[in-house]
């Protein structure tokens, strides 16, 4: 059950190596493990799209973990470094031993400060098409989700993928939210088609199936084929179209 | 007697009493027990399962012929409480799994309990029928209607004894009030109201009114992208009907007073243990998420369960818990693996004994732990078929953390993480405990001398 893998060679029996922050950052295994944790977390969030409503508590905790990693990577400047790292298939098989991650930060490095999380960057409210993530490198931000769906991302213009990682977290939450509308108005709220496309690509599930009750709505255009993870999105689009037509008539 | 776990003279010895459920190797998912609860006298023990069924056990009267055997629990009533539903609006299934059962105090011959799945709370009446009327005028014994013109005489129907029948009828259905998944229900001490809590909201109900509930807590942000914290559990104070607490995924507990305002958005008290910044890791928040909160019977303390510990808080001290007990600290170095296989999100419950001197909670490998608050001693016991001989004394178990493993110890890597004890219950006044191990219900009692 437990992941075997990369032993903490750098740390075994060498307490004195827990030195400077630079010293820690020079050791690739911590970053690798952190990246591995990030990949795992993103996969977990995407796998929430099951037949039953996802567990909101679990999703929130995972999303908070992702934010925490992201913030630390941003502060460390290692977000840039992702570009240079190998971007092989991010399957769970390649997860490395995460002993380092399980140790407290005091154990890892003297004086290493792990930032607390702030609330989500409010720049992303509303219009996801805008890139307002100034702090992230545009090219390297492709890499995090790229690990998950490498063939899909390669088709994308890097320019469009500015801040995609940040967006992806938003959209995962948006998807969760849209699965739990708290009023009828939410169902008919405007859905940004470009957001829908991103969501489709992010999940990478390109199944052609729609749920039964959507079959009668084929006359309405939908951005892409519905995926099992974004059936709700396609439903919203189609409902949106229906309302438009009803209102006009 | 309200013996604590360990008085000065002698420790309580726990013995196997009964086990309910099948021994099949493959467990039917529907049979997995999802909640366990004694009623206020301890006479009844209810379980709910993933298949939406409720099974109620009743304690047999103690036999004079067998003074060494305490009353056994046998099936009293079984009924289907919730059915699976489909939410067409969201294209999602609504599970029939029973998340919680809470008993109402008994006020007449019938028993009442609340059972809930993710969306709907139901009030069930469980009553006995041991007589039936015979001698109707308008229908014959088979129930067929008689032709009124053929009736020449009238008689008064009489009640005749019949075999005992236990009926469960749904008296109230409280639906359509929760957008998110209900995690807790709690009966108020006024016995007129109760609350139901989901991830983001808590509603107050009157038992008599099903088409209306009052929202008393709402932590849903205007923009769901800002959501970083959810409600994980909630409970009314056992004596003060205006007071309740709710816990969060960030390890905080809020105590609210309903007298201050209709919407209890501002807490009267806020309990949080300051984080040790040197102990911080990527999993710190997840393991601080509180999975259960329980008032002590006295109402003076609250107990919380997070992934690795149980904490007891004094209501008068908000800045840190009074007591912290390590449930399975050997898992601290395995958190990433437990995150990978989702075990880190397991929600363990915790319970008080009748005198509030001992607390109990579950762990993995079908282990469960008890902590004596007075003697500070703790014990690990196991619910397993191997220890299931009548009145067999349970042997304490020990997990070996490293180095040499002793003969009876089990190493951390050998623990079975699919065997988790999430739900336990303690009889309100005696040393009888019910432990749910997947699809089996174990009942243990202290040794009778």
Set out the fold topology.
The complex is a heterodimer of chains A (249) and B (449).
Chain A: H1 21-26, H2 28-46, H3 56-76, H4 78-81, H5 99-102, H6 105-108, H7 143-146, H8 150-153, H9 164-178, H10 184-187, H11 193-203, H12 231-248
Helix pairs in contact in A: 2-3, 9-11
Chain B: E1 14-20, E2 33-38, E3 44-49, E4 53-59, E5 73-80, E6 85-87, E7 92-94, E8 100-103, E9 111-116, E10 121-134, E11 158-174, E12 182-187, E13 193-198, E14 201-206, E15 214-218, E16 231-236, E17 243-248, E18 253-257, E19 269-271, H1 284-288, E20 292-295, E21 301-305, E22 309-314, E23 323-326, H2 335-340, E24 350-352, E25 358-362, E26 367-372, E27 378-382, E28 399-400, E29 410-411, E30 423-426, E31 432-437, E32 440-446
Parallel strand pairs in B: 28-29
Antiparallel strand pairs in B: 1-32, 2-3, 3-4, 4-5, 6-7, 8-9, 9-10, 10-11, 12-13, 13-14, 14-15, 16-17, 17-18, 18-19, 20-21, 21-22, 22-23, 24-25, 25-26, 26-27, 30-31, 31-32
Protein name (chain A): CDCA4 protein
InterPro entries (chain A): E2F-SERTA_domain_protein (IPR052262), SERTA_dom (IPR009263)
Pfam families (chain A): SERTA
Descriptive notes:
The complex is a heterodimer of chains A (249) and B (449). Chain A contains 12 helices and no strands. Chain A is mostly helical. Chain A has a domain of 71 residues. In chain A, helix 2 packs antiparallel against helix 3 and helix 9 packs across helix 11. Chain A starts with 20 loop residues before the first helix and ends with a helix. The N terminus of chain A is likely disordered. Chain B is mainly beta. Chain B has a single domain, classed as 7 Propeller (Methylamine Dehydrogenase, Chain H). In chain B, strands 1-32-31-30 form a 4-stranded antiparallel sheet, with no helix packed on it. In chain B, strands 2-3-4-5 form a 4-stranded antiparallel sheet, with no helix packed on it. A 4-stranded antiparallel sheet of chain B has the order 8-9-10-11, with no helix packed on it. At the A-B interface, helix 2, helix 3, helix 5, helix 9 and helix 12 of A face strand 7 and helix 2 of B. Chain A: InterPro entries: E2F-SERTA_domain_protein, SERTA_dom. Chain A: One of its GO terms (cellular component) is nucleus. Chain A: Pfam families: SERTA. Chain A: It comes from Rostratula benghalensis (greater painted-snipe). Chain A: This is CDCA4 protein. Chain B: Belongs to the phosphatase 2A regulatory subunit B family.
């Amino acid at each position: 059950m437990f992941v075997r893998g990369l032993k903490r060679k750098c740390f075994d029996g060498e307490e004195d190596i827990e030195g400077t922050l630079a010293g820690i950052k020079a050791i690739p295994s911590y970053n690798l493990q952190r990246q591995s944790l990030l990949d795992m977390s993103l996969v977990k969030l995407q796998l929430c799209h099951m037949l039953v409503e996802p567990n909101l508590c679990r999703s929130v905790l995972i999303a908070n973990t992702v934010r925490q990693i992201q913030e630390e990577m941003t502060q460390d400047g290692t977000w840039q470094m992702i570009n240079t790292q190998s971007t092989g298939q991010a399957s769970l098989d390649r997860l490395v031993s995460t002993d380092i991650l399980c140790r407290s930060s005091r154990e890892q490095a003297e004086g290493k400060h792990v930032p607390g999380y702030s609330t989500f960057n409010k720049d992303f409210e509303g219009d996801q098409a805008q890139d307002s993530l100034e702090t992230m490198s545009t090219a390297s931000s492709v890499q995090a989700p790229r690990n998950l769906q490498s063939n899909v991302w390669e088709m994308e213009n890097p320019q469009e993928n500015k801040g995609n990682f940040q967006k992806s977290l938003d959209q995962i939450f948006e998807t969760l939210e849209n699965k739990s509308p708290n009023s009828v108005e939410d169902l008919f709220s405007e859905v940004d088609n470009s957001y829908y496309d991103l969501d489709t690509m992010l999940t990478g599930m390109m199944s052609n199936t729609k749920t039964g009750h959507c079959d009668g709505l084929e006359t309405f255009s939908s951005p892409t084929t519905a995926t099992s993870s974004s059936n709700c999105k396609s439903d919203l689009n189609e409902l949106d179209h229906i309302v438009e037509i009803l209102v006009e008539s | 007697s309200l013996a604590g776990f360990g008085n000065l003279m002698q420790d309580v010895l726990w013995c196997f009493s009964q086990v309910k459920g099948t021994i099949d190797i493959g467990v039917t998912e529907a049979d997995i027990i999802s909640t366990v609860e004694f009623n206020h006298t301890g006479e009844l023990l209810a379980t709910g399962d993933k298949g939406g069924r409720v099974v109620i056990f009743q304690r047999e009267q103690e036999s004079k012929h067998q003074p060494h055997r305490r009353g056994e629990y046998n099936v009293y009533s079984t009924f289907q409480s919730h059915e699976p539903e489909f939410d067409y609006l969201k294209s999602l299934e609504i599970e029939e799994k029973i998340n919680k059962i809470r008993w109402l105090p008994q006020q007449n011959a019938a028993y009442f309990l609340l059972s809930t799945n993710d969306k709907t709370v139901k009030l069930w009446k469980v009553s006995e029928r041991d007589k039936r009327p015979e001698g109707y005028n308008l229908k014959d014994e088979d129930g067929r209607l008689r032709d009124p013109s053929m009736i020449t005489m009238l008689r008064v129907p009489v009640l005749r004894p019949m075999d005992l029948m236990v009926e469960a009828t749904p008296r109230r259905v409280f639906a359509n009030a929760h957008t998110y998944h209900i995690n807790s229900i709690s009966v108020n001490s006024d016995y007129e109201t109760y609350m139901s809590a989901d991830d983001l909201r808590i509603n107050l109900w009157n038992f008599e009114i099903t088409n209306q509930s009052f929202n008393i807590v709402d932590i849903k942000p205007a923009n769901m992208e800002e959501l970083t914290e959810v409600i994980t559990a909630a409970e009314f104070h056992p004596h003060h009907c205006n007071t309740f607490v709710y816990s969060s995924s960030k390890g905080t507990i809020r105590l609210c007073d309903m007298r201050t305002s209709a919407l209890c958005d501002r807490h009267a008290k806020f309990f949080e243990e300051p984080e040790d910044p040197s102990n911080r890791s990527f999993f710190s928040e997840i393991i601080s998420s509180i999975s259960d909160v329980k008032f002590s019977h006295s109402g003076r303390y609250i107990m919380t369960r997070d992934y690795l510990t149980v904490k007891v808080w004094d209501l008068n001290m908000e800045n840190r818990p009074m007591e912290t007990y390590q449930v399975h600290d050997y898992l601290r170095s395995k958190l990433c693996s437990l995150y990978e296989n989702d075990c880190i999100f397991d929600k363990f419950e915790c319970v008080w004994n009748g005198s509030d001197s001992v607390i109990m909670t579950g762990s993995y490998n079908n282990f469960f732990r008890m902590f004596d608050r007075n003697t500070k001693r703790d014990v690990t016991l196991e619910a397993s078929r191997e220890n299931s001989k009548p009145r067999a004394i349970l042997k304490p178990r020990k997990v070996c953390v490293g180095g040499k493993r002793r003969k009876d110890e089990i190493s951390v890597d050998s623990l079975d993480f699919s065997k988790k004890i999430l739900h336990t219950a303690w009889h309100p006044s005696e040393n009888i405990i019910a432990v749910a191990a997947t699809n089996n219900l174990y009942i243990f009692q202290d040794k009778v001398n």
